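Module 6 notes. Inverse folding takes a fixed backbone as the condition and produces residue identities as the prediction. Think of it as a translation problem where the source language is geometry and the target language is the twenty amino acids. Below is one complete input and output pair. Work through it position by position during the lab.
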């Protein structure tokens, strides 16, 4: 499970990650990662699940599934980074294993792009 300290809740954090970070998209998920070098804060993750995914019950189910999967990835994120994971409509009917595989791909791609750019 994703600890409370690792969750993004403020609009400013979501906006900063979406506007200033790198982006990658897949059929089920889209991710935005902003790495803030020198930040002493822990890495945080937030989820966006719009009405296009489904009703409230479906959206909350998708969000819970993503939070459960995200817990194991938090250690791989650089300190102070902000990650936004946006669920696409197909995420509502996806199997948990498919969501897990796609989340792995999204995070690995974002880390290669963002951290690789910082090392140049």
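Target side of the pair, the amino acids:
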């Amino acid at each position: 499970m994703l600890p409370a300290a690792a969750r993004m809740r403020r609009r400013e954090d979501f906006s900063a990650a979406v506007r200033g970070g790198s982006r990658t998209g897949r059929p089920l998920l889209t991710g935005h990662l902003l790495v803030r070098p020198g930040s002493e804060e822990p890495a945080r993750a937030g989820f966006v699940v719009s009405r296009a995914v489904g009703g409230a019950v479906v959206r909350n189910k998708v969000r819970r599934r993503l939070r459960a999967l995200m817990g194991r990835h938090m250690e791989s994120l650089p300190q102070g980074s902000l990650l936004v994971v946006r669920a696409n409509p197909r995420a509502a009917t996806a199997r948990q294993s498919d969501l897990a595989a796609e989340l792995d791909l999204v995070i690995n791609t974002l880390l290669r792009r963002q951290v690789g750019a910082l090392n140049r």
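Reference fact for the lab report: The domain at 4-108 is CATH 3.30.230.10 (Ribosomal Protein S5; domain 2).
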